[in-house]
Design goal:
nucleotide-binding; Putative pyruvate, phosphate dikinase regulatory protein; 9 strands; 11 helices; 2 domains; alpha/beta; ADP binding; 5-stranded parallel sheet; about 280 residues; Kinase-pyrophosphorylase; Rossmann fold
């Protein structure tokens, strides 16, 4: 089939808060169209008509798709009406679900801007979890393993720190520990419930590439013991033996994003038997 030529697409994202919801929905959709050239314009914290009107005028000039998560009714309705009058594609991300839930429950929505990001107990718990992840990163203090909601183990370059921070943003207190044959495993690890431990692994070839790139980034030769394949295989074998002794879940991160690995962890954290997810 012959491909049609296409013009660049413009997307205007409008939110009364930070705008993450609409942006993530759009990014998920655009991932299905990798060859399209996209221009994205992000307008957060739009809470007054005087701020909204110039944004919509710009959308009109750009002939843009308008995507919004405005919950204040007059702003939301004005945006929908403006786009309809100007023949602009308009997507009110929250409207249908809010309406259906309201109809099902008989309760009226708060219509409060930024309700998702309010400074409540959940917010401060998230900040506390982030601080915890920083404090107990890379096994800095073994006491953290006993206080953690989750303990991540893994050889170097298995995404322990990025995963810890991502999960901390889900209000999960995470401590992590690098695994290597020469380093003794802290006694505290053996006191942790195996249900709260996740062993991370990776393919040897992937680790080899990652570690060479890391050495180059440091201005060093890529050919070191750190990136040696025999050394990497020995590390992985040692890690697997440790995971088997602990009876913890094991996840291979080689073909997974941080988000995918985190989703597996959050859905599997109660598993007590050693489970290997290749």
């Amino acid at each position: 089939m012959e491909q049609q030529a296409h013009e660049d697409l413009h997307f205007v994202i409008i939110s009364d808060s930070v705008g993450d919801t609409a942006r993530k929905v759009l990014q998920a959709v655009l991932a299905q169209f990798p060859s399209i050239t996209v221009h994205m314009y992000h307008y957060p914290f739009i809470r007054k008509m005087k701020d909204l009107e110039p944004v919509l005028k710009e959308a009109k000039e750009l002939k843009a798709f308008v995507i919004h998560t405005l919950v204040v009714e007059d702003l939301s309705e004005f945006t929908d009406s403006f786009c309809a009058a100007e023949n602009l594609p308009c997507y009110n991300i929250l409207k249908a679900l809010v309406s259906d839930i309201s109809e099902k429950t008989g309760q009226q929505p708060l219509r409060r801007a930024g309700a998702l990001h309010r400074l409540d107990d959940e917010y401060f718990n998230r900040i506390s979890a982030i601080e915890f992840a920083v404090k107990y990163d890379d096994g800095k203090d073994p006491k953290g393993f006993l206080d953690a909601d989750l303990v991540l183990l893994g050889v170097s370059r298995t995404s322990k720190t990025p995963l810890s921070m991502f999960l901390a943003n889900k209000n999960i207190k995470v401590a992590n520990l690098p695994i290597m044959p020469e380093a003794a495993v802290p006694d505290e690890i053996w006191q942790v419930d195996p249900k709260k431990i996740v062993g991370l692994t990776n393919d040897a070839e992937v680790l080899n590439n990652f570690r060479k790139e890391r050495m180059i980034a440091y201005g060093l030769s890529p050919e070191t013991i750190y990136s040696d394949m025999d050394r990497i295989r020995a590390e992985l074998e040692y890690a697997y033996e440790l995971y088997n002794k602990l009876g913890c879940i094991v996840i291979n991160v080689s073909k997974r994003s941080i988000e995918e690995t985190a989703a597996i962890i959050m859905s599997s954290i109660e598993i007590s038997d050693t489970t290997i997810i290749p």
